[in-house]
Amino acid sequence: MSHCLPHLRVACMASNQSSTLYITDQGGVYFEVHTPGVYRDLFGTLQAFDPLDQQMPLALSLPAKILFCALGYNHLGLVDEFGRIFMQGNNRYGQLGTGDKMDRGEPTQVHYLQRPIALWCGLNHSLVLSQGSDFSKELLGCGCGAGGRLPGWPKGSASFVKLHVKVPLCACSLCSTRECLYMLSSHDIEHHPAYRDLPASRVLGTPEPDPGSIAPQDPGGTAQACEEYLSQIHSCPTLQDRMEKMKEIVGWMPLMAAQKDFFWEALDMLQRAAGGVGQGPPTPES
After folding, report:
1. What is the CATH number of domain 10-184?
2. What angle do CA 40, 174, 32 make, to 5 degrees?
3. CB-count exposure of residue 235 (10 Å: 0-12, 13-18, 19+)
4. InterPro entries of this UniProt entry (predicted)?
5. Which residues contact 6 (CB under 8 A, 6 or more apart)?
6. Among 1, 141, 237, 257, which lies 20 to 30 A Cα-Cα from 116?
């Protein structure tokens, strides 16, 4: 990196078996990939891949300054100065947290998550360490759940859901392998993500100002999101599937940790009751 682009200063970086991700002190993102398979997973094409010049880092286009990053085997995550999370790459197991399993060849924002403390991309799963308004910490995960990757969600999830892990109050960093999860717990008053507030004109779902209107309509796109959630629940074939989908949706919503815990516990109670009335015993995953 220093030889190819000597005018840039690297502030942080992440690497895996065949790739390296660089974040400059100005918030720019540069990516270095050495195998065509991983390049195709990350960008959806081999059009710009040059097997004769694999050392020159490629610049990624982002709408704002990037503060930190995470890199898995074939997917990556970025967090910008406004606390927004962008994911890119292979999504076969739902490891991008976009709610589907469609690959993304460019950075795609995960709209229901923001201002994370830490982000981690594993082999085929992703983790986010977040803090609620009551200063409690929680761990969210998506992707493959096999081998204990997502505690409490053995079937995995295509959206970020709260994991059944007690997170230390001062947790500040994390790392995960196929079967192990590590969290670093420490407190440094001089080291924490300093996010900026997103200008009102750039908030998702905020309409352009209309001189004839008094107040913006649905400034956060909340009504549209709730309609989509209801549509997803309605498309589930069984009551158990609807319960599972509702638990996922609660994980997407920007609720306080105590509120999410309440809804998850209530849904678990309803699910157990429904499983015992004319539907046979509940499954171990319910």
Report:
1. 2.130.10.30
2. 30
3. exposed
4. F-box_protein_24, RCC1/BLIP-II, Reg_chr_condens
5. none
6. 1
